[in-house]
Structure formats: structure tokens, C-alpha cells
Amino acid sequence: MTLPRPHRDDVLMGVCSFLGGVLLWSLGLYTQPDRTLLPAWAALVPLAVLSVQEMYRRSAPLLTLLVGTAALVADQLTVGNLFTVLLFTDTVYVATVYGPPAAVRRVPIAAGVVTVACVIGLPALLQDPFGLFLGVVVGMIILTPALTGVIIRNHRAAADAALLRAEQTALLAEMDRVQAVTAERGRMARELHDMVANHLSAIAIHSTAALSLDNPQTSRDALGVIRENSVAGLAEMRRLIGLLRDSGHDDQPAAAPTLAGVESLIAQCRTHGAASGLTFALDDRRGEGPPLPTPVDLAAYRIVQESLTNALKHAERGEVRVVLARAEGRALTVTVTSAFGRRPGPRAPGSGAGLVGMRERVALLSGEIEAGPVEGPADGPGKIWLVRATLPVHDEDEEPSA
């Protein structure tokens, strides 16, 4: 087995411990001077072994513990050296700090068993109270570093777990922030599109008409509509920019549009769509009932607004009908129909963002929406473009379904 390269600090500790032990040995400072079975220099052998294995204390903690135990037993047959004992205590400590999880459980248990055996057995074996003192010393050499290593390892594990939890919390917070920013950007995109698209569509249609028709009166009327819608669109843009900047002024925020303004919206569309042969009608079947929640009211208005804008841009000549109905189950249904087909004359380009915005608004309210061409009534012009959105309406103390 190839041992890894020792750590620089461990090498320094092993060299210093060996030099310190040699210094004590040269001065004749032994821990067991009455042991004369072996010559005095024999005490340097366990010291050298423990000093060498000290260099691998972190990379091979269990191996150094086994070698250190054997060296300590051999040291008991010599005059002994204090640094040999100190190096062994460090070996026990390192085995519980850097060893595998099994070592954390087994080393302290084994150290405790040896300590208890020495505390009980040495006084009985020596028939002298001094044996009790020796048992306590053995406990200090074996059990104390083992318990210290367990405490240090537990503290490190707790610190690592706390750091991991902090990193996970930071990651979750960043994910929440990204989701919040994405949701806010989507909401801003929907509001910007819904507020400005109607005005810009009218500008595009009438400017195209003014360029394609060589009629001074038509051009004058188109320029009037263009100016009206450009001023209104600019005002909406300024209001939105003011809200985004959140300058902290005490100005009252502009009220969000509601279905109460649908009639005014349809009146504007009648003006814009007259040149294209479009007529607009409102069929309000809601009847009497409690007021709609603000999110539902705003979403319904925006769906009607976007549907009318799409009709101005794409619908064939004919009627554009808006139907508002509220079922007994408190669900609000918004239906907008228009003739489907390619109409002659000026048209404004579309990007499909409006349909995406409508679907997002309905999804946020856990509702349903369908948009696309369907077969119209038998006495009608054929296919029609249908937009039908069902928006659940919950009581104030009732949580909406996810």
C-alpha cells in the first residue's frame, strides 16, 4: 500500500517531537528509570517509530493508531520517554478526528474499557493504592484524547451541516428571486402589451390607410386618429414608466381598468374599425350580483381589450361581438367572436404575444381559455374566430385553487 504524501505540519511535528525526546534522553530524564532490562538507548526506538508515523497521522489515522499502540507497549519495557507518551495521545486523538465513522464509535469505547480495567485491575494486582493513580494516568493518556477527538469531530460535522443548510437556503432564496423576477417581468410585459397594443394597432391601420388611399379627407381623418392614439399611448407609457420607477412620490396611483370601461373601449373600436367594415356590439348578461374581485375584473378587461385589438388587425368585415356572462357557480365567462378570414385593405402585423398574454392571465387565475377558428352559426358568414375565457370567482375568504 502506497502512503500519500505527508502534510507539512505533520512532518514538522514529528521532527520536533523526536528532537525533544532525544533531548530528554540525553539529559537522563526518563519516565521509568528503574527499568534496566534493556539498555537506555532502546527507549529511542519507540520514539523514532512514533515520530515517523506522526507524519501520516491525517492520511492513515487507523494505521498510525495500531503502530503507535505497539510502540507504546514496547516503550514500557524501556526506561521510557515522555515524548513517546505524548505522541501516542495525539495518535488516539487523530484516529477519532480523521478516521472513518466506525473509528469514532469504537476507539472511545475501547479506550474506556482499557481505562476501567486499569483503574480496577492495577490496585488489585499491585496491592498498592498507587495502582489507582496509574489507572487514572492511563485514562488521561487513552480516554481523554479519544473523547476530545469525538467532541471536535462532532463540532466539525455540525459546522459542515450548518454551512450546507446555509448554502441550500441561499440557493433556494436565489431560485425564489429568479422566479419572482421572471413572474414580474411577465406581468410587466402583459401590462405593457395590453396598454399600448390597442393604440399602436389603430395607428398602424390608419397610417396604412392614409398611405394607400389617395383621398385628402381620408388622410386628414386618419391623421386625427393617429394623433389621438399616439397621445393616449404616450400617456399610458408615461404612467407605466412612473410606476416602474417607484419614485416615492405621494401621487395617487392610477386606477386599474375594469369591465365598467368596456363600453368606452368598444366605442373607440367602432371609430377605429369603421374604415375596415367592422361593427362592434356588447352583450352583458351578468345581471345583478356581488362585485368581481380586482384580479378577475382586470383580467377580463384585458382579455376583451386584446381580443378587440386582434379583431381590428385581422378580422374580416362583419360584427365583433363581446358577451359577458356570470354563471351560478360564480364563474365569469368572456366570449368575443369575429368573422374569420383574410380581409382586403390595410392590416396591422401581429406577433402572437397577445394570445400568450391572455393565456398567462387565465392560468394565473386557474381558469380556462380557448382561442381559434370554429364553425359559426348556420345563418352566419361561415367560420368565426372565437375567444372564450372562463375565470373562476372566489369569495374573499376562499382560497383560489392552484
Report what the structure shows.
The protein is an alpha+beta fold. It has two domains: 8-169, no CATH class; 255-402, Histidine kinase-like ATPase, C-terminal domain (Heat Shock Protein 90, 2-Layer Sandwich). The chain contains ten helices and five strands, in the order H-H-H-H-H-H-H-H-E-H-E-E-H-E-E. The protein has helices at 8-26, 44-53, 61-75, 82-98, 101-126, 130-212, 216-245, 262-273, 294-314, 353-364, and strands at 278-285, 318-326, 332-339, 368-375, 383-391. A five-stranded mixed sheet has the order 1-2-3-5-4, with helices on one face. It is rod-shaped, with a radius of gyration of 44 Å. The two termini are 60 Å apart. Mean pLDDT is 80; it is low at 397-402.
Strand and helix map with partners:
Layout: H1 8-26, H2 44-53, H3 61-75, H4 82-98, H5 101-126, H6 130-212, H7 216-245, H8 262-273, E1 278-285, H9 294-314, E2 318-326, E3 332-339, H10 353-364, E4 368-375, E5 383-391
Helix pairs in contact: 1-2, 1-4, 2-3, 2-4, 3-4, 4-5, 4-6, 5-6, 6-7, 6-9, 6-10, 8-9, 9-10
